[in-house]
Amino acid sequence: MGKITFFEDRSFQGRCYECSSDCPNLQTYFSRCNSVRVDSGCWMLYERPNYQGHQYFLRRGEYPDYQQWMGFSDSIRSCRLIPHQAGTHRMRLYEKEDHKGVMMELSEDCSCIQDRFHLSEVRSLQVLEGCWVLYEMPNYRGRQYLLRPQEYRRFQDWGSVDAKAGSLRRVVDLY
User: Would you say 138 and 166 are in contact if contact means Cβ atoms under 8 Å apart?
Assistant: First the structure.
């Protein structure tokens, strides 16, 4: 079970809203979000309702302003609790859409996809086990995308506007 608290103002001030499960529309509870406290669980925050827009991965800790979670603005409109999964993690990356072209499989974190697989773009992927966070840039920086066990036939399926892929991290290591 997870617990996250959103605050309208920086440094945990102003109106707040506590959440313990997925919420597709947070805008009914607050108008802006400038700080967050994660008491338990790992969460993906979304800039727009219904899990759309920029995504921000947060684990247990305090985030006194939106820049601490690499936010572009104070707009958080939905959130999703990432299920804790013990055990193995596996995924396959493909250089082309629809799982075509060269395929690479991994089961560990990868800080630089370019160095390890000689790819700067991933056009499709398949998450076989566990949840992952895909980062647009190497060393776990840039835009973030939650990847759950399923097939992603094109990069738009995970919410990206392009096929840039810099690094991957298993969620289990982040609890």
Answer: yes
